[in-house]
Design goal:
Length: about 160
């Protein structure tokens, strides 16, 4: 089966030899269609995988974003927001950060504030932020955790 290209859109070629070609309406330019297939497949696999764990929200948002990118509804210069979720015995802290560096800074500030709860043999908090975060959460394993989710910042309004 050989697809025929017409004005940058996908068309359906003959299914059997000698049969006429029937154009298929496709609202997506063929280059965006092919570029988005891998991302769409990965997002769909993530939804299926998360279905088994009962946590679909993030996977469905990623799938929705993939569909919007393929349809050309996401600007090329889109911005992402990092949602930092810190879970601890008394609740949750949520931070919307402009980049991963800012999220790491917020997480380090949290770790620094509660470092006094660490065993004395661990010593002072390291100045290396990633090392301090790793040590803190290794010690708090199962009691506290954090998650960083990348969320696309999409405008809901039409801009000229």
């Amino acid at each position: 089966m050989k697809p025929e290209k017409t004005e940058g859109h996908l068309t359906l070629d003959q299914c059997e030899m000698g049969k006429p070609v029937f154009p298929m309406e496709c609202e997506i330019p063929i280059d965006k269609f092919y570029k988005g297939c891998g991302k769409l497949l990965a997002a769909a696999k993530q939804v299926v995988s998360n279905w088994e764990q009962g946590d679909l929200a993030a996977a469905v948002r990623d799938l929705d974003l993939s569909i919007k990118e393929i349809q050309g509804l996401v600007p090329e210069d889109r911005r992402d927001v990092i949602l930092l979720i810190i879970e601890f015995p008394n609740g949750h802290n949520f931070f919307a950060c402009e980049d991963a560096g800012r999220a790491t800074d917020e997480l380090y500030e949290f770790v620094e504030e509660y470092w006094h709860e660490m065993p004395a043999e661990i010593g002072e908090i390291p100045s290396d932020k990633l090392k301090a975060i790793e040590l803190y959460y290794r010690e708090k394993e199962g009691k506290e955790s954090y998650e960083m989710q990348v969320l696309a910042l999409l405008s809901g309004r039409d801009e000229d």
